[in-house]
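User: Run a structure prediction on this.
Assistant: Running it now.
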Amino acid sequence: MIEGKGFRDPILANRIIEGIRRVTPKNDNVKICHVCGTHEWTISHYGIRSLLPENVEVIAGPGCPVCIVPAAEIDEAVHLALKGVTIACFGDVLRVPGSEISLLDAKSRGADLTVVYSAMDAVRIAEKNPSKDFVFFAIGFETTAPSTAIEAIKKPPKNLSFLISHRLIPPAMEFMLGIGDLHIDAFIAPGHVSTIIGLEPYEIFPKVYRMPTIIAGFEPLDILMAIYMALKQISERKATLENEYKRAVTWKGNLKAKALMNRAFRVVNGAWRGLGRLPDSALKLADEFIEYDAREKYGIKIEGGRDIPPGCQCHLVIIGKIKPTECPLFMKSCTPQKPVGSCMVSSEGTCRIWARSMHLKFAH
């Protein structure tokens, strides 16, 4: 709590804002893209966009792990659940829409679901119920993948398998740079992911793409400082990789966590909701642990799911091409209580964050 207060100091914030105004190019519009749901929460909750010069825009990229799970993989979990397998998953996955129904809808039809906080929880539950079959629906970026990896390596009970839906952030960032009508001037990279993978995987962005890239923490001053650092590079016509989050992120990252991931998984191409199939952006259990792969164990592989319901613009919100308020369904037919698109489901989804920020603004 002491650290949190220090990183919310209004006097320091004003000094950084003054610095931002000094280094902002006067005649050019600047677009900075972050790739983290928690960054979006901080930016929206503390009104950081309102503090920036008018020609500086901060957009949200595909940084919400729940939002980018493709409908086909939700469909796989629903299929297993309706066949009598107990699905263990994180709570914010329950309402993510599949092609036709969500896991919560499946529960209303008799499916057995259990909410867990980690893969370890799923292992413990399976051990206590040896007569039932369990599948842990493993979603998330590099932040949560090591916790899945260690449970696979430890050889869980035979009645537990893993439906892997882990994704990797750097390939998604590189994908965004290939979108022809989406202009980005700098990246703010996610802090949680970076504590695992370190700075090294981001080196490609300044070196190959001449893209200023800043790793940032999650407090308001972290975000403001990262914006300042990005704008300073732009004004000086530089492109380097900088670490604002030095108190948690190192060059190599968490070597033990990466070793676990390298042993338990292999990198494959993977689908992202609304974005298509991105090269080398997903994880699959290594052959050594194939007996714990739910897709292999139950012979399921669903492709061609319906990612985006009619009228929904989540695929454009996920890449920051439009704001949530530009989606025709936002806070009309799509609300936090009755989400239509995946961006309105999770607390890290851009639409959900904007909806909550609007609610708080009106409440005050």
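The longest helix spans residues 220-235.
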